[in-house]
Amino acid sequence: MLTTVALALAAGVLAVLAIAMGYVLGWANRRFHVEVDPKVEALLAALPGANCGGCGFVGCAAYAEAIAQGSTEVSLCAPGGASCAQQLADIMGVALEESFPYRAVVHCSATTDQRLQRTEYRGERTCTSANLVAGVQGCIYGCLGLGDCATACNYDAVHVVDGLARIDYDKCIGCGACARACPRNIITNVPFKSERMLVVACSNQDAAADVRAVCMVGCIGCKACMRAAPDLITIEGALPSINYDNYDPTDETLQKVLEKCPRKRVLFVGKPTEAELAAVAHEELPEPVQADFKTTVDDTEWRG
Amino acid sequence: MPREQPTALERFINGILPENPIYRQLLGMCPVLAVTNGMKPAMTMAAATAFVLICANTIVSLIRGLLKPHLRILVFTLTIATFVTIADRFLAAYVYEMSKQLGPYVPLIIVNCLIISRCEICASKQGVGVAVADAFGMSLGFALALASIATVREILGSGTWLGLPVLPAAWPGWGIMVLPPGAFLTLGLLLGIAEWASQRRAAGKRQEGGTR
Amino acid sequence: MDTLATLILIFVGAALINNFVLHYFVGICPFLGVSRRVDTAFGMGCAVTFVISIAALLNWTFTYFVLRPGAPLPAWVWAAAGGDPGTQVDLSVLSYIIYIFVIASSVQLVEMYVRKFFPPLYRSFGVYLPLITTNCAILFACLEIMKQMQDPTKLWGLHEALTLAVGGGIGFTIAISLMAGIREELDLCDVPRPLKGAGIALIVAGIMAMAFMGFTGVDKGVHEALSALLR
After folding, report:
1. How far is C21 from chain B (nearest CA, A)?
2. The whole model's pTM is what?
3. Tell me, what's the ipTM?
4. CB-based contact (8 Å) between C207 and chain B?
5. Do C2 and C9 form a contact (C-beta atoms < 8 A)?
């Protein structure tokens, strides 16, 4: 009798609990119903899902919601690229404005030998640590060359060569991880309106005499570039900065600016142009030397 | 294009080393840390988990046609809770001391991510045979992982293995190994070793692929 | 004032001395998974504390009235069925099933409520709620409470159960926030490749567990201080 009652009671309790919670959850489902925009699902499916944060939102889900609310553009996803931007634009039913891929640019071009007043740094081999110490190198604005940006890059697009961070534009997708990692903030994301872009390859804001004391190649703030292209270039402190909204790749003043700079710090960076590839294409690679085994010691006659 | 579902044999072999629940999937860590201070509790926990996993996989596989998508996790959880209750009562009846030592960790099998994830990934999608093979494989992998950690902790911590002394009596017994910090440190280092071994193997495969 | 002393002891015990994560090993999955940044870790901790309290409340009620040996409902049904008052109907075998069912349903309800009425809160904490259903820490707290309700003579009341739950939740929050702070720093360090991720996190957790072992005996000291103070 104990068993029967126990079993019946157990079954009864479970049944009552299940029915009660079922009712409560069913009621709650209707009462607390939230309208979910089906567009968000579609947008999320179109995004690559890398959650890299390059768009400026916490993850792909946050970006999808922002797009659905209409509060942001559809072209911010760097890993997704143009095809993803087109898909997002189609889902939202908007026309895709012409947008450009963003790529990282390092605003320093001095290799280790060109930096003056260097001391032997024996601390932690990270830029963040070296940046906290005074006197590692003369220039307090420029690249330290210890590779925090290279470590931050998940796409193998940043390498430190000769003490200077260099971007491999075949691999860079513009996620901005290197820019966030640089403690001196000399890497920025630039919209690449063409394969090669004019950039200011220096970050030193000091006057000419001070710059020359710390670097063999730094910008001296002579303002020649600003005079050559006043719509494009502004000078802040003693450092030029290019306004990429006004940048037109077909403008001839770009070439003029390049020529006018006495220190050659306003340069083109990007993928190698066809002209450059063609320039080296005709060079013959040296033939690997094939060993000619007729001349080994064994076959040499010994004329003793 | 839907991938071909793995066969029973593949599921079985997968569970032992390639997709080892602890070293590769990092699921079900709570019992791993708690019961591995000796081989005996570890093996008892492995047996209990195996029982629950196999039974739960079987039942879920049998009722997989009836599951509503948004209720399935709840159904899995209730099925698992039923079998855990059975296992817990069985242990309390037949190995009372061990059951007292394992304490609240046997009921915590209910929320062991491993079992729910196997129900979700395998049992709710494939037939009984495959589900049971998967359960066996995963249980074996789980037991192997538990054994490896328990061996390290028990030998270094008390100089015994399965209760039998294996180190000379002069061994002082690193008390820290049988306490919580020892659990974390052992698991962390063993995970590091497992990761290193798999990276070496992956590098070896890449080498072969490159020179071909 | 004895009650207050007991409550403080339970709270300190659950939060620091027998920390849920570092002493009892429950809640390891979110501890390793969500502890990359301090703000998300703190959010997870708050969500866990909230859910633990609700789960403890509901499950204590169930245990008190239905599931413990000598509970009113089975005793009433047994008496109504004309049973011998010397024996009892013991429904404690249903405990695990009912606990997990109550936890899952209450988490679902809370998630729906928060999503509807507190959207900003949902955006920050709400995504963790489904994860918390399978969080060992909630079930563990309920099991600890159940353990203390087996003896009808010294039964834990709702206040003690809630103190344990909130203390456990706060201990979890402390542990996960500390771990997140350490991991944020670890990101900048040169960790050997095999240990990156879970490996180094577990080693750090081991060192933290050693540190928390220093709290052993604090309960005795607190007890003495409180007895002296509240006399």
Report:
1. 9
2. 0.69
3. 0.83
4. yes
5. no
